[in-house]
């Protein structure tokens, strides 16, 4: 897993250990992601399927894309499609993905890079592996997170953030047994590079076998843990959790994730995505690529798309 890493974790700033009076976040529930296909046929796990939308707020959904080893000719992406009313966050762990949109945003992301696209008032975009990867195949693995926008930002101008792996804030757990990558938001006073409309944090953590991560977390945020690979436990009551499962946590000052002492050779560490944000608590009308506050706004989005108001596919 070549997402940005560090050979010696002891050189990094360390997260503080929970203090007297700090409350651990309880585990409210664990779900298993169903598997399917997206776009032109790349495999995904619907990480948050089955979780109540009130517990996800301000997030809409998250897909784990892959992990898959493509043979030559197999890599796939999406065709041109519209979005309005939210943000897509694409984080590539292994492999390479190209992005292009109708407002001039785009670029190529690879191991540890992130594309943060604010669809806002609406755009067209496409995501696909580069031609050389289609021809030769290779490993592909990443996530795409959908972040809702509050009502007053849904029709904001589209924007695009290209976050390189070298910009990600790197921290270690107190015992240097876990590498914590802060992609967006602030964790224990350390800020990641991603700029967000909705206050939130996005973290990718790699936990060594037998190690424990006690992660300080903003008390105003909800908290969700998704296991990319490996096995371990979550919460102070050590609820078992494994690859493809999500945990919803309740209120508190920090969350606890521990890696089992023995991991499979293909995934020698426990890798998790931790995400949380301040709930927006507004009405939600979601239909396909449009996330709005009412049915009439969704219908208007479809009309605007059909009439070409989202821009045009670049030549």
TrEMBL record:
Fe cation binds at residues 81, 83, 125, 127. GO terms for molecular function: metal ion binding. Residues 42-147 form the Pirin N-terminal domain. InterPro entries: Pirin, Pirin_C_dom, Pirin_N_dom, RmlC-like_jellyroll, RmlC_Cupin_sf. It holds the Pfam family Pirin. Its cofactor is Fe cation. Transmembrane segments: none annotated. It comes from the Bacteria. Gene3D superfamilies: Jelly Rolls. Binds 1 Fe cation per subunit. Residues 203-311 form the Pirin C-terminal domain. Keywords: Iron, Metal-binding. Belongs to the pirin family. This is Pirin.
């Amino acid at each position: 897993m070549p997402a940005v890493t560090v050979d010696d974790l002891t050189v990094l700033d360390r997260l503080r250990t929970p203090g007297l009076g700090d409350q651990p976040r309880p585990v409210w529930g664990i779900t298993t992601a169903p598997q399917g296909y997206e776009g032109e046929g790349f495999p995904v796990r619907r990480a948050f399927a089955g979780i109540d939308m009130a517990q996800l707020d301000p997030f809409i959904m998250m897909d784990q894309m892959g992990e898959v080893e493509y043979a030559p000719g197999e890599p796939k992406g999406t065709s041109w499609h519209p979005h309005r009313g939210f943000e897509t966050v694409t984080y590539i762990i292994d492999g390479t993905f190209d992005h292009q949109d109708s407002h001039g945003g785009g670029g190529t992301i690879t191991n540890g890079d992130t594309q943060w696209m604010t669809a806002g008032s609406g755009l067209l975009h496409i995501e696909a592996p580069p031609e050389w990867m289609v021809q030769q195949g290779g490993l592909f693995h990443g996530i795409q997170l959908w972040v809702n926008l509050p009502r007053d930002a849904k029709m904001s101008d589209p924007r695009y953030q290209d976050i390189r792996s070298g910009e990600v804030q790197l921290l270690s757990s107190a015992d240097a047994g876990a590498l914590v990558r802060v992609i967006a938001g602030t964790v224990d006073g350390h800020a990641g590079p991603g700029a967000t409309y909705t206050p939130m944090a996005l973290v990718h953590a790699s936990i060594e076998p037998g190690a424990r991560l006690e992660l300080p977390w903003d008390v105003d945020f909800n908290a969700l843990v998704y296991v990319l690979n490996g096995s371990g436990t979550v919460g102070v009551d050590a609820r078992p959790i494994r690859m493809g499962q999500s945990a919803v946590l309740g209120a508190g000052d920090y969350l606890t994730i521990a890696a089992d002492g023995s991991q499979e050779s293909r995934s020698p560490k426990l890798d998790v995505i931790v995400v949380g944000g301040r709930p927006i608590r507004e009405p939600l009308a979601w239909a396909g690529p449009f996330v709005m506050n009412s049915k009439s706004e969704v219908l208007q989005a479809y009309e605007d798309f059909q009439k070409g108001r989202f821009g045009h596919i670049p030549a």
